[in-house]
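User: Can you help me understand a structure? I only have the sequence.
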Amino acid sequence: MRTVAIFAAVGALVAAVALPAYAVSKPSAAEATTLQQMAVDEAQSLVVASEATAAPMARGSYSATTPEEIAKKKAEAAAKARAAAAARVAAATRSGSGPSDADLRLAASGSGAVRYPLPQGSYYVSRTLGSGHNGADMVAPAGTPIFATASGVVRTSSESYFGYGVAIIIDHVVGGQRVSTLYGHMINGSRAVQSGQVVQAGQFIGKVGNTGRSYGAHLHYEVKVNGSLVEPISWLRANAG
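Assistant: Let's start by predicting it. Here is the structure, written out as tokens:
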């Protein structure tokens, strides 16, 4: 009996010590619930990088920024401008509004040794010799024919003669005096005579234009007698037939 009592006491002692420790180490039902389970009612979804897709970017949604793209755009704009200009020229030619060389290569009216450089009634004089201006500005529509004032030899025939632009200079002998006449601001490509060529009074030499230092279509006309400038309109009135 004593032995049984001892074993019973030892068993009770073991139970008294072991059961509280076991209770502490065993997870409770509340603790066994995961955080995800606890927050399931208010849970938020998370998209990881592997699930994200980039929105496509349309090429037309932004402008050129690289030097190559800028140069390409400029070239395209220039090509469009050239095409538009060519179309306008073609339309003018078809409509007959452009001047005809066949109608312009005529001699100036009159039979004198000196002729007016433009047809009568086709121009007006906006200014003349003086205040640093060396000749007369005879304002006329672009394409108006220009004639040699007198017979002589072409000294200069140039597409770019200083500020005169497209210009011609002719040397003459009029009344025993050395005379030179200059015709400036003509249309590019309209020169009908070349340096060294002999021309006759009233011969067609070019067309009124707006080249060089010019502000509108007109003929800049200069006359020198024995190397000195003279007022061109007065000289024409005194000498032209």
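Now, to help you interpret it: Strands lie at 124-127, 136-139, 145-147, 152-158, 166-174, 177-186, 198-199, 204-207, 218-225, 228-230. The helical segments are 2-25, 29-32, 35-38, 67-95, 101-104, 232-239. Let me know which part you'd like to focus on.
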